[in-house]
Amino acid sequence: KEFIGQQDGEAVQASKTILNQGDDLADDLAEL
User: Fold this and answer.
1) Alpha carbon distances (Å) from 19 to 10, 25, 29
2) What band does 4 get if pLDDT is binned at 50, 70 and 90?
3) Cβ neighbours of residue 8 closer than 8 Å, sequence gap 6 or more
4) What number of other Cβ atoms are within 10 A of residue 26's Cβ?
5) pLDDT one-digit tens code per residue, 14-29
6) Does the pTM exceed 0.85?
7) Mapped to the 3 state alphabet, what secondary structure does 1-32 carry?
8) Which of the four pLDDT bands, split at 50, 70 and 90, describes residue 30?
9) Cα–Cα dist 17/28, whole Å
């Protein structure tokens, strides 16, 4: 269970990173 929990945690972090990158991209497009 600990191994699966660790994988889930990494997946959540990856999702947050992707979402943050998407927000930055949206901000860049809004400035154009």
Assistant:
1) 14, 10, 15
2) low
3) none
4) 10
5) 989 988 888 888 888 8
6) no
7) CHHHHHHHHHHHHHHHHHHHHHHHHHHHHHHC
8) confident
9) 17
Q: How far, in Å, CA of 2 to CA of 12, rounded? A: 15
Whole-angstrom distance, CA of residue 23 vs CA of residue 30 = 10
Question: What residue type is 1 in one-letter code?
Answer: K
Return the amino acid letter for 13: Q
Query: What's the length of the chain?
Result: 32
CA distances from 15 to 5, 11, 24, 26, 31 (A): 15, 6, 14, 16, 25
